[in-house]
Amino acid sequence: MTEAFSSLFLAALAATLALKLWLGWRHARHIARHRAEVPAAFRDAITLQQHQLAADYCIAKTRFGLFSALLDSLVILALTFGGALQWLAGIAAGASASPLLSGLLLIVGVATLTGCISFPLSLYSTFGIEARFGFNKTTPKLFIIDQIKGLLLGAAIGLPLVALVLWLMDISGPLWWLWVWLVWTGFQLLMVALYPTLIAPLFNKFSPLQDLELKARIEALLQRAGFKSQGVFVMDGSRRSSHGNAYFTGFGAGKRIVFFDTLLGQLDHAEIEAVLAHELGHFKRRHIAKRIALAFALSLGFLFLLGQLLDAPWFYAGLGVSTPSTAMALILFFTAVPAFTFPFTPLSSSLSRRHEYEADEFAANETDAGKLVSALVKLYRDNASTLTPDPLHSAFYDSHPPAALRINHLQGNR
Ligand SMILES: [Zn+2]
C-alpha cells in the first residue's frame, strides 16, 4: 500500500507539472504568434505599441509562472521524499514534549521554510516584472512594511486557529473532522465580516467617495437594483500598483463598495456605473453566496478525507515520513492534495466564466452595454491584459472569458 501510494503521488505530481508546463508554453507561443497585429475588433482603441507591451508582459508573467511551478514541485519533493519534513519534525519534537506545542512548532517551521522560498519570488514579481512594465508603484520600504504586517497578522490569526484545530483533532474522537469543519466555517465567516473594517485598513486607506455627481449616479443605480450598502469607498491602490479594480466586501447591511483610485482615474462616469452594475450582477445573481456554499461543501469533503487518512500508516510512509502526528497529517495533506486536484481547475474556471457572462447580462440590462464594453477595452489596455490568449490555456485557467468573446456577448450576440 505504501509503495503504491508513493507511486500514485509521484505520478500525479509529475502529471500536474507536465500539464502546467505544457499549458504555459502553449500560451506564451500563442501570444507571441499574435504579437505583430492588434485584433481587428480592438484597432480603434488599442495601438500596436500597447498590444505588444501587453504581449511581452503576459509572456514574462507566464514564463515566471512556469519557473514557479517547477520550483514548487522541487520543494514538495524536498519536503517529502527529501526528508525536510522528517528533519523539522525531529527538531519540533526535541523542542517540546507536548504534542500540541511540538505540532504547532512543526507547522510554524514549515511555514517559515516555504515563506523563505516564496519571498524572493514575490520580490522578483514586484520589482522585476511589474516594475519593468511600469505597473509597480510600491517602494522597497512599503514592500517590507507590508511583508512584516502580513507576517504579524498571519501569526496573530493563524497561530490560535491552528492550535485550536490541532487540539480538536486530538480530543474530539472519530468525528473530529466535523468539529474542525464547524470551526473553519465559522472562522471564514468571521473573516468576511471583519475584513473590510479591521484588516483591509491596515494596508490601505479607504475614504468615502468625494465626487458628488458620480456618487448620485451610483446611488441611483443601487436604488434601481434594490441594493443596500454601507457606502461607497475609494481605496488608495495607486500606492502599490497602477492596476485598477472594483469590488464588494462584507456581509448583509455591512456591505461596502470599494473602487481603486486607479480605476476612477481610468474610466468616465458612465463607464464606472457600468462596471459597478457588473459587480452588482454578481451579487444579484447570488454568485457570491453560491461560491461560498461550494467552498464550504468542498472543505467538508476534504476534511472527511483527511479523517480517513489520519490513522493510515501508508499515508505518512508513502510520503516519506516515519513519525505520524496530527500536525504532520495536516501538512502532508495540504502538500499532497493540490497534485491530485489540479486537473479539476477547469471546472471552477468554467463556473466562474458563466457567472461573468451572467453579471455582464445584468449590467447590460441595468446600464449601457456599450459603456461596459468601452470600460473593458480601457481596462484590458491599461492593465496590459492579453487580447489573444491561447484558447486551451484560457479554458483551463481563466476566471473571465477572453476579451473578444466577452465583448461579442455584450454586443448582443448571446
Ligand atoms: Zn465579474
Automatic annotation (TrEMBL):
UniProt main location, coarse: endoplasmic reticulum
Cofactor: how bound: Binds 1 zinc ion per subunit.
InterPro entries the record matches: CAXX_Prtase_1, Peptidase_M48, Peptidase_M48_N
Positions contributing to Zn(2+) binding: H278, H282, E356
Compartmental location: Endoplasmic reticulum membrane
Keywords annotated in UniProt: Endoplasmic reticulum, Hydrolase, Membrane, Metal-binding, Metalloprotease, Protease, Transmembrane, Transmembrane helix, Zinc
Residue ranges of every copy of the Peptidase M48 domain listed in the record: 208-412
Domain CAAX prenyl protease 1 N-terminal: 28-205
Residues at the active site: E279, D360
MF terms (GO), sorted A to Z: metal ion binding; metalloendopeptidase activity
Gene3D superfamilies: Metalloproteases ('zincins'), catalytic domain
Transmembrane segments: 6-25, 69-89, 101-129, 150-169, 175-195, 292-315, 327-345
Membrane topology: Multi-pass membrane protein
One Gene Ontology biological process: CAAX-box protein processing
Keyword Zinc in record: yes
Entry cofactors: Zn(2+)
Family in the record: Belongs to the peptidase M48 family.
Protein name, entry field: M48 family peptidase
Organism listed in the record: Chromobacterium rhizoryzae
Species lineage: Bacteria, Pseudomonadati, Pseudomonadota, Betaproteobacteria, Neisseriales
